[in-house]
Amino acid sequence: MTITTLATLAADLKDGKRSSVEITQDYLERIEHSQHNAFISTNADFALAQAKAADAKRASGDTTQLLGVPVAQKDIFCIEGTQTTCGSKILENFIAPYTATVVENMHSHGVVSLGKTNMDEFAMGSSNETSYYGSVTNPWRSVGRGSAQDPLVPGGSSGGSAAAVAAQLAPAATGTDTGGSIRQPAAFCNLTGLKPSYGRCSRYGMIAFASSLDQAGPMTHTAEDAALLLNSMAGFDTKDATSLDIPTEDFTASLNHSLEGLKIGLPKEFFGAGLDSEMAAIIETAVKQFEALGATVKEVSLPNSHLALPSYYVIAPAEASSNLSRFDGVRYGQRAAEYSDLVDMYTKTRSEGFGNEVKRRIMIGAYALSSGYYDAYYSQALKLRRLISNDFDAAFAECDVIMGPTTPSPAFAMNSKSDDPTEMYLNDIFTIPANLAGLPAGSIPAGFTQAGLPTGLHLITPYLQEAKLLNIAHKFQQETDWHLQAPPPADGALNSNLGGKH
Amino acid sequence: MALDNDTVHGIARLARLKIDDHEVEKYSAELGNILDLVAQMEAVDTTGIEPMTHPFDATMRLRADEVTEHNQRDKFQAIAPSAERGLYLVPKVID
Known about the structure:
In chain A, about 35% of the residues lie in helices and about 10% in strands. By secondary structure, chain A is an alpha/beta fold.
């Protein structure tokens, strides 16, 4: 089975080989027949109407590159008139009254929205196991094998998006990344995932988890596709007070630039204890590939990176406890059926509507912000955030890009970590620092373990250098074919009656 | 650092959540583990370090003081759990 990229579909549409309606119909059928639980909802009428409109536009001479190309949307993005759950019971009946700017931007480029992908509840999780709508299986091992091995998780929180693209239920998807939620599932499912610089993509209409960290980005097979999709997502938005007012950029423009003289920094802190030895060897091989392309490698240091996880687990819950106070059963979402007074209504509504991980994080946040603890927790975390950010400034004085593993280990089995929240948190140990500093960071397929599981190479570049990051990723993908590998057919999306179509 | 049951109930009340009695022990242990993880922060001397509330210390933009929103009350109230005659309905607050 070969993968289908956005670039291929765009070329097919341009050449008139296929129509958007045909392509969209094909993906909708695959979604319907899939077993991964990657989608929370689809709206075939809505998608096909968009596809039809795209075909009509193309017939009248519109040559927008992504016109008519279908993409899956993480169910954290509001789309007017469609169910938007954020993976939570409390929003089960929520029909968004407006559309997120990122989605609106994509729609204005003619992108078709196939449906809403599954995710950890309110984007809090690294395995997609906290979703009210059920776990998602990783297409690289979605059924038990021989012994009592459980299926693997796709990662999280954008686990449905990752599984959808890996299983070819969509050629690409949107994700959001607060502590690694695009990059970790991309690594687990053999995808290219990019978290842009903070402020690059508007947060308007993207349900908030931790507002100073949240950022939307593309999840695709290739770096070229990530550039194409980011072109359609990014842009200044007056509706988001932290949106960057900077000129638009074509992220595909420098994809083929030479990497001659590129300075790669390897932080020694990312290669220490806790890193799977097989992973370390794979990353080492990937770095050698860059040397063959003319890059030089040197060791750098991010001495405060061990403080990223502790400070993140104060800052993110603190912001979440504030953001999630809006779910009170008054203006939208579910309300408890029976209650005695106003406070009882709030309390019952929230206790019934939120899952355990969300409750834990809200409570940690409330504790960290409460009287007497604010300085010890919240203020201290913000000071450490500064130190972590300063570390990157110092490292980037010596190199152009920082590389390392995206995750400490490949995808793990379902139910293997869900009982221990703090062990689950360790999944994001390499990805969190870039969120705290607001830097662009991505994960690209780096090779496979002995057990045949994908791994991710993590790239971090200076502020606003997404184009550089994508250039580095693209050149690597010209030399390697890890990103072209698809999951074994038995586990993949295409069942027998659909497998022969392409 | 396990939290005592009263503290767990207290935090839950601040967050407008109710933790059932049979779940308090579990929450106490789990929240305690998270606080243990976070406790590594204490060891760092951050005297003189300015807190970083936002990446790049960007400041919020101000906009012109002009009306930009139009009235969408009916549309927004259509998705409310309980609304009537333009009002959101909640249990009686004042007797």
